[in-house]
Amino acid sequence: xxxxxxxxxxxxxxxxxxxxxxxxxxxxxxxxxxxxxxxxxxxxxxxxxxxxxxxxxxxxxxxxxxxxxxxxxxxxxxxxxxxxxxxxxxxxxxxxxxxxxxxxxxxxxxxxxxxxxxxxxxxxxxxxxxxxxxxxxxxxxxxxxxxxxxxxxxxxxxxxxxxxxxxxxxxxxxxxxxxxxxxxxxxxxxxxxxxxxxxxxxxxxxxxxxxxxxxxxxxx
Length: 220
Description:
By secondary structure, this protein is mainly beta. Helix content is 15%, strand content 39%.
């Protein structure tokens, strides 16, 4: 069973309606998809029928359809459509493996535990957060977290090392960095901002500085 913790897996704005996207968390493949009505879902990236990756499929309304044989799964995970047998009501036992997923602070979070009880990281008020950008580094999450902390310590502002690293800048912007352990040797870092950093000009400047941060970490 996966550990009971929430990992940021994408910026909220990255996952568009009627799209299916592949995501890796601790070397576990996830199909992250959003229905036409806007509901975000995080499932094991495997069709129960023949094991095809569901992230390669397509979204029709509130169903994720497997690209292989077109089997359709509703947001509850249960198979609802088998095109080869249009008159058949699929057995209730045919279900995709669902995982807990939440949208908060401009990020999408997933918890892969079978019975998640851990609370989401708390960044205060949920409103006003905007995507800055995501970066990916070829290093374990513990090393990437330390490198990000060390770099942000050189910025002007108040740095806090919690589940999500935050930096309160002098201009009133708040920058947050949430970490995605992709596998043993690679890590994603998703940056979001609030306040002055959420304005278009502020986001552009923060995105530029985040790219520079990545270059400095890679150089070391």
